[in-house]
Amino acid sequence: MKTELKSALVCSLAVLFLLAACTNKEEPNGPEALELLNSQIEQIEGLYPASQSTPSGLHYVVQEEGTGEFPQSGQVVTAHYHGTFIDGSVFDSSIDRGHPISFPVGVGRVIKGWDEAFLGMKKGEKRTLIIPSALAYGPRGSPPAIPRNAILVFEVELVDFK
């Protein structure tokens, strides 16, 4: 009986995962996604010509070098941030609240651009991150604060990690 119950549970979970994968029609793929990413990268490079970039399309400017080691995937980082849209309008800021944010890095708890950026930073480092929508909230956005396909700009500081 236990074996039958386990089998039924495994099959049910597999069906749920397949349905979730098949019903995600909001995510662009193929040529549309690549065209949007390339367009956003052109826009970013026009506005931030001194920025460095990664193969994924993340752009950044190191404002102040950090020291020591890099955090490892799964470690909890503590960071301050000030988030704006590409036009400069603010949507969120831990600095304004006076409290940094903590999260496990590299495990998908934050947007892809943050995971990638913070894994490449050292303690005390400050960067400007310019994140194309594919590495942020994509075509869904994060209503009501962040519209679909928004390029996000963050001033970040890696305060600590454990």
UniProtKB/TrEMBL annotation:
Record carries keyword Iron: no
Start and end residues of each PPIase FKBP-type domain: 74-162
NAD in keyword set: no
Domain of life: Bacteria
Signal peptide feature range: 1-20
Family the entry assigns: Belongs to the FKBP-type PPIase family.
Full protein name: Peptidyl-prolyl cis-trans isomerase
Source organism per UniProt: Pelagicoccus albus
Chemical reaction(s) catalysed: [protein]-peptidylproline (omega=180) = [protein]-peptidylproline (omega=0)
Coiled-coil annotated residue ranges, if any: none
